[in-house]
Specification:
With 313 residues, the chain is α+β, with helices and mostly antiparallel strands. The chain is built from 14 helices and 10 strands. It folds into 3 domains: 3-129, no CATH class; 133-190, no CATH class; 196-294, Endonuclease, Chain A (3-Layer(aba) Sandwich), CATH 3.40.960. Strand 8 and strand 9 form a beta hairpin. The N and C termini lie far apart (75 Å).
């Protein structure tokens, strides 16, 4: 590969060793940097252009600075894969555990892994960890279980992976934080729950209080196709779980039309947001019980804890 091909493949970034390997002398590299034609990014790592640095070029610079075998990982890899919309303030790079970068690199966080050869994506550029390993890396460093849930559900919701592939990758890891929760979550996601809000409803509202099992993400076709977050067909009850995005402006009108159509068809609709389901799952369950009972449910709700308004004391 000549210098032009290398520059094109690496978004305009090269290391000193690469430049020397394609025929540039050390003096020529120093002149290119000193004259302003190239810009120094990290030690022995250069951009072969002037001006702002695109994100992919920043990633290449970090990978080349960390050295042979390094790949983008964690939030950086998640952004490159499309699993999140914000790459964060630093570039995350993982190197083989057999190596160690002794000098701190500005703007770069270096991780180490023993199984990097297995978790590395075989063809993506810039080099990065596979989607499933990226998600599990982020789960492993998540400070709170809700953040771990968010990474898993986002990757599945954006159709970047599946619960089955994540479960397979999880099975190959000996140690990972939040393992029991993630194993249970993958089962739940496979059943149709697609966000932390839906997962919380499934666990803390429905299961914890012994309610009937709803049909999740149910597609209903008519004059226009609609999707129901949680549907209880025998009782003609529908539950809509509204996140913080997508339910203003036109989204709000779509919700209204959907709810009005359900009412015309004889369905009841209950609508909840994060504050309801995370903040008062027992209160949400109590409302479910009242509507379900009025519509023919003869089951007995469970009281999940002292003070819970559902079930018997």
């Amino acid at each position: 590969m000549d210098l032009d091909d290398l520059i094109a493949a690496q978004h305009g970034v090269v290391s000193r060793a690469q430049a020397r390997a394609v025929g540039l002398t050390a003096a020529r590299v120093r002149w290119l940097v000193g004259s302003g034609r190239w810009q120094r990014l990290h030690a022995h790592t250069y951009a072969t252009f002037t001006g702002p640095l695109p994100f992919d070029a920043q990633v290449w610079a970090a990978i080349l600075r960390v050295g042979a075998g390094a790949v983008a990982s964690h939030r950086t890899a998640a952004y490159l894969h499309g699993a999140c919309d914000d790459p964060g303030p630093v570039v995350h790079v993982t190197a083989p555990a057999s190596r160690h970068v002794r000098t701190k690199i500005q703007g770069v966080r270096v991780h180490y892994a023993h199984r990097l050869a297995l978790s590395r994506h075989p063809s993506a550029t810039p080099p990065r960890t596979r989607v499933e390993d990226t998600v599990l890396d982020l789960v492993d460093v998540a400070p709170h279980p809700r953040e771990a849930e968010t990474w898993v559900s986002a990757a599945c919701q954006r159709r970047l992976t599946t619960p089955e592939r994540l479960a397979d990758a999880l099975g190959r890891r000996e140690k990972i934080r939040w393992r029991p929760m993630v194993e249970a979550m993958l089962t739940d996601v496979a059943s149709g729950a697609q966000s932390p809000l839906e997962l919380q409803h499934l666990r803390r509202v429905e299961r914890a209080h012994g309610l009937p099992t709803g049909c999740r993400q149910r597609r209903v076709a008519g004059q226009r196709v609609i999707w129901i977050d949680v549907d209880y067909p025998p009782y003609r009850l529908r539950v809509e779980l509204d996140g913080r995005v997508g339910h203003t402006g036109e989204g709000r009108f779509r919700d209204r039309h959907r709810d009005n159509r359900a009412t015309v068809d004889g369905h009841a609709t209950l609508r909840y947001g994060h504050a309801d389901v995370f903040g008062d799952p027992c209160g949400v369950a109590s409302e479910h019980v009242r509507v379900l009972t009025a519509r023919g449910w003869t089951g007995t709700p469970l009281r999940c804890a002292p003070g819970c308004p559902c079930g018997n004391p």
